[in-house]
Write a structure and sequence with these properties.
GO terms for molecular function: hydrolase activity, acting on carbon-nitrogen (but not peptide) bonds, in linear amides; peptidase activity. It is built from eight helices and 13 strands. With 312 residues, the protein is an alpha+beta fold.
Amino acid sequence: MEKPFALALHGGAGTITRALLTPEMDMAYKASLEEALSIGHHLLSTGHSALEAVEAAVVSLEDNPLFNAGRGSVFNKRGRHEMDASIMCGKTLAAGAVAGVRNVKNPIQLASQVLHHSDHVFLCMQGAEEFARKQGLVFETDEYFYTQQRYEQWQQLRDSNVYMLDHSDELKDKKFGTVGAVALDKHGNLAAATSTGGMTNKNFNRIGDTPVIGAGTYANNHTCAISCTGHGEYFIRAVVAYDISCLMEYKGLSLNQAADLVIHDKLKHMGGEGGIIAVSADGEIAMPFNSEGMYRASWVEGQAPHVAIYKD
């Protein structure tokens, strides 16, 4: 018997307010979220797997220079782009993750190849890139990943030891640049996928929560699928994605109860900022965040799609 399917996605969280986005940018972000949502929804509605849907939705966001992932990735300390991504199957608990990869057009596709065509879960840097070439994935030049906005962000910081999470003109304007998608398909299977360009001016090959299974990404058919966006160091320390799943499995909390407890209580008390998107095995959607805003969208079968940016 087929189940109602559900999909949610995000394009990052942080200090995102109406005052900081022009009407044109507001429309551009919402249109981009709607496009990725439609791609994932079409796949789910035609019987494709949750794993296929989250990968395709994230590819759409990676290809969009508005988001800090794939083409829109920020510059690191050396003026390069180092990208992280991960994907997980809730049915088998199989996962694939990559960190610090350069010039790979779609890091989420590489994470998927690790899941499907390797005996490993986590590959990084040159080894991950070598695997990408072996799998025939598309590479792009540095120019492909160049965006004027990201370059100007980096220019403000390049001669300092400061790093910023998707830093823009004002220090208060913090954006945690990550994209992600979660889905429940008609067969009752869950999946999650997350991708990021990391932090502007990041040094020392810094890696955040995005590629860390259980921290930034997690999926388990018994509980939920989760993709996180926020200050990665806190999400790693709090094992955010897995903690929400555990609260459901071991304490019997609903998805929304578990997600609210972790994001608004446990994470906030640590000083961590950000949010998550999640879908439960029953098709319940949760998208809590403790920042000013979060680019987010969801679509449950039989309901109208939902796209939002701000708190209210």
